[in-house]
Amino acid sequence: MNFKKSEIEKLHTAIMNEFRDKSSQLAQVESEASRSNSQSKTLHEEEESLIFQKQELKDKIQTLDQEKESKKEILEKLREKEQELISTSGTSIGQIKEYDDKLKVLSDKNQILTKEVNSLERQSDSLNRDLSDLVETETRLQKLLETFGFDANMETFDVEPIVQGLSVELNALNALNAKAPETYLEVSYGYRSMSTRKNSLEEERNSIVKFIEGIEKDKRQTFLNAFDVVDKEIRLIFNKMTGGNAWLELQNEDEIFTSGISYLIQFKNKPKRESTSISGGEKTLAAIVFVLALQKLKPSPFYLFDEVDAHLDAPNAEKLSNILEERSKESQFIMVSLKDSVVNKAKLIYGVYPKNGVSHVVTYKDKRMPSVKTS
Q: N or C: more exposed end of the chain, with fewer CB within 10 A?
């Protein structure tokens, strides 16, 4: 009996323990369910927020696409304008020379006209002095005649009252200049003629000066446009080849035609220096960059380089070959080189080698084409 009771108590204890475990598990499950509901609510709110943000982003993307189209049209117009400026800059050097020739001719003409104007001014001053003397003489004679009753506004007068006085005056005079009126007329006419000529010369001189100023303005603008193109290309090409910087500077921006231009070089991790103060290899690199920049200003049909890469290391020679390959789309480059990186970029290669005291030439077309000709 006691044994059964003990078994029942053990069973009761096990059932109670299991009940407590199940109750604890139930509480845990309910807690997890509550957390899941809370998380579900939070996720739902985040989903709604994300949907709202998605719609805002769609609207913003649509607006940016519209702005992109308008900006794209503006960019295309600017590129067309850039190409137009680049295509017209090739004639800049010829225009500058033409303007210089015209300016020299006009300057010579201006000097001649200035001398002529100065001569006419001296003649005019002399005539003015002669005219002033004649006017004073005329005034003195007028007053003298008025003393004897002569009125300048009267066409006729009675000369009898003054004949006697004039006779006395005539006798008192030694030698009267009878040609004074004629001389006065000649001087007056010459004065008016010289004044007209002087005004005409001054107008012509002013027009020439204005034209010269216009030529100087066009000449300056043409030079600055060409300067900007070359400077831009130098910066771009030098940075591609070395990772450094190079640029042009006007020594005196107010007197660009009487001062010089400085070519400044700054290799990577080095201070800037003028092109005249760098090493031989660096000068070679700087000179190549300058030639390629000038090519952009006024392209030539072809260029001939004789071992310009001789002083360049392998990385710089490789960069030079890449730039020449890119530029070869517009011009032809004929280059003597011993660098593999440069030769590999060539579309047509001529190799020269001696055999039995005679030079032979081998031609490789399109780098890897099988056609080979030996002469």
A: N
Same domain, 84 and 109: no
Structural domain of residue 66, as residue ranges? 2-89
Q: Residue 77: how many CB atoms within 10 A of its CB?
A: 10
CB contact at 8 A, 280 and 260: no
Locus of tokens 């000097």: 111
Inter-CA distances, 93 with 104, 235, 290, Å: 17, 21, 16
Q: What is the pLDDT of residues 222-248, one digit of tens each?
A: 989 999 999 999 999 889 888 889 999
**Do 74 and 107 fall within a single domain?**
no
290 contacts 234 by C-beta, under 8 angstroms:
yes
DSSP string over 181-212: HHHHHHHHHHHHHHHHHHHHHHHHHHHHHHHH
Residue 276 has pLDDT above 70, yes or no: yes
Q: How many Cα neighbours within 13 Å face the side chain of 31? A: 6
Residue 178 near residue 122 (C-beta atoms within 8 A): no
Q: Is residue 280 part of a domain?
A: no
Does residue 154 belong to any structural domain of this protein? yes
335-374 confidence digits (pLDDT tens): 998 888 888 888 888 888 888 889 889 888 765 544 544 4
Q: Structurally, how many domains does the chain consist of?
A: 3
Last residue of a domain, one of 38, 71, 89: 89
How many angstroms separate the Cα of 198 from the Cα of each of 152, 210, 253, 350? 34, 18, 38, 72
Instruction: State which amino acid sits at residue 244.
Output: G
Record the pTM: 0.45
Which among 301, 365, 366 has a CA at the least distance from the CA of 330? 301
Check whether residue 114 and residue 215 sit in a common domain: yes
Please identify, among 26, 54, 89, the residue that sits at the C-terminal boundary of a domain.
89
